[in-house]
Amino acid sequence: YLRAVKNLCLKMGYPITPFKHELVRRATKLLEKTSIKKEKSPPVGLTTLKRLVELAVRELDNASAALYILSYWFLLRVPSEALTLRFVKAGTDIGQRTGKTIYFDEDDESGPGVRFESNKRKNINDPTDMRRICHCKTDKDVCPVHAIECYMKHEALEERPFQHLSARSVNATLRRRMMQLEVDKYALFTSKCFRRGHTNDIADRGGSLFEILENGQWNSRGGYRPYLEEARLRDRLANARAERQKSPEDSPSESSQSSNEE
Hints:
This protein is of the alpha+beta class. The protein has helices spanning 2-12, 22-34, 46-58, 62-73, 136-139, 146-154, 167-180, 193-204, 209-216, 230-246, 252-261; strands spanning 86-87, 100-105, 113-118, 128-133. The protein has a 4-stranded mixed sheet with strand order 1-2-3-4, with no helix packed on it. The protein starts with a helix and ends with a helix.
């Protein structure tokens, strides 16, 4: 409300000195502490990602399609990581792979892949090196290797394909597309939705805590919790208990191991 009144004063040419008063500043801080907690951005899982990428491609926005795919598979923080990505050619000297880089890599027994390297990530001082493999057999349209390669060809493999985007424009376009796709709570979506979506997808398919921490590059057990929906955690716990009850013949050592894993 204060922001709206302040903007109106600016538009009308009235002075805004009162808004800088100490009492107004303190009242604003108090309101922020006591106001209702803002809802989190809903997650974008693999199913929604496919629809979102399809819409972006129909709008001839290959850059956004590539951004969505990379942000999902590598659990990137869009403002500080995805938007600053540099695409480099495979074999580029390590001294030239500075900052946050992406490059295609085929020198691996698991087949073609794409790598994300970063000198530093949030809460992690050590260099990061993450690799994703081809998913064409199951998720061809959002494959982190070949779909990205295809979209980037349309962008003429620019070194910084997302530099024309901003966090605000990404969020605005994302919400508009979610509205077109008739997704619930479309106005709440932010670029965090991809990081949250992949984290929840790992949990839904029974991924371990180690896998969640490894994919999200969290350095503590609590760091991933804001990205997981509590309802899904409760469902997983209930399912695990139900499975144990179905198998009473399990040995004590196995039951103990399951308990420790929970």
